[in-house]
Design brief:
Helix content is 48%, strand content 16%. It has eleven helices and eight strands. It has helices at residues 3-6, 21-32, 39-53, 65-69, 98-107, 111-116, 118-124, 137-141, 155-165, 173-192, 214-230; strands spanning 10-14, 35-38, 73-77, 82-86, 89-91, 130-134, 147-152, 205-208. Helix 2 (21-32) packs across helix 11, helix 3 packs across helix 5 and helix 9 packs across helix 10 (173-192). The termini are close together. Bound molecules: cytidine-5'-diphosphate. Cytidine-5'-diphosphate binds at residues 17-18, 22, 39-40, 43-44, 104-105, 108, 134-137, 186, 190.
């Protein structure tokens, strides 16, 4: 592939919870030697920062952009992507605890919260060669991205995949329904909020991964990227 044409390229992957955005984005970035930006991790870091800050939850809604900025969330570029920092310290698995997951959708619906990490995300894309995943990558953060994918999958399939990620390979009907409900609640909240709701960009390509194996969905995105840079 022509490296020159890849230079400024940004690929966005948006979609509902558990649709496989982050794992697909990471694998696609690796195949293309791009960096991967997991924007959900930033919202999770803001949520974790708030939980650690001691500010009572009922006051979160009234926080200003500056107060969110004071949580000191940052990104540090690595060879393959970005590490997320809170107050200069790398955070990773702490971002995916139930305490954070249960609150992140509310936190990310706040305008001041979103505004506080807007510049950070755009900066991550300034040199191109980026695969960014989230909810508003193609609509708000990188509207000029050359390739926008909207990943979807049936709710039950997404619940199965999410449980598999945490080692539950054969969940019973109750666990499956519980997980599906949790994903659906977050999707409703993410798509109904006023600011930067989860929605497909007009120029995005929808990719339904329900019946695709992981490698197939990675290949589908890589093929689209190739097509874009070859012609
Ligand atoms: O991986 P999963 O789909 O569970 O979620 P995530 O990508 O880690 O994002 C967690 C939450 O952050 C989402 O449910 C959204 O509420 C929020 N988010 C957002 O509002 N905008 C983004 N660009 C990315 C995530």
């Amino acid at each position: 592939m022509d490296d020159f044409r890849r230079e400024g390229l940004i690929i966005t992957l948006d979609g509902p919870a558990g649709s496989g955005k982050s794992s697909t984005a990471k694998a696609v970035a690796k195949r293309l030697a791009f960096r991967h930006l997991d924007s959900g991790a930033l919202y999770r870091a803001l949520t974790l920062g708030l939980l650690r800050s001691g500010v009572v939850e009922s006051d979160w809604e009234a926080l200003s952009e500056q107060e969110f900025a004071n949580l000191d969330i940052d990104l540090q570029a690595t060879e393959t992507g970005f590490q997320v920092l809170i107050g200069g310290e790398v955070v990773d698995s702490e971002l995916r605890t139930a305490m954070v997951t249960d609150r992140v959708s509310f936190v990310s619906s706040l305008a001041a919260c979103r505004q506080s990490i807007l510049g950070l995300q755009r900066k991550a894309g300034k040199d191109g060669r980026l695969v960014a995943d989230g909810r508003d990558m193609g609509t708000v953060i990188f509207p000029e991205a050359a390739l926008k994918i909207y990943l979807i999958a049936d709710l039950e399939e997404r619940a199965i995949r999410r449980l598999r990620e945490v080692g539950e390979d054969s969940p019973d009907g109750f666990r499956l329904a519980q997980q599906a409900r949790a994903l659906d609640t977050r999707d409703q909240s993410d798509s109904q909020r006023a600011i930067s709701p989860l929605k497909m960009a007009e120029d995005a390509i929808e990719l339904d991964t329900t019946r695709l194996a992981f490698e197939e969905q990675v290949q589908a995105v890589v093929d689209l990227a190739h097509r874009l840079t070859l012609f």
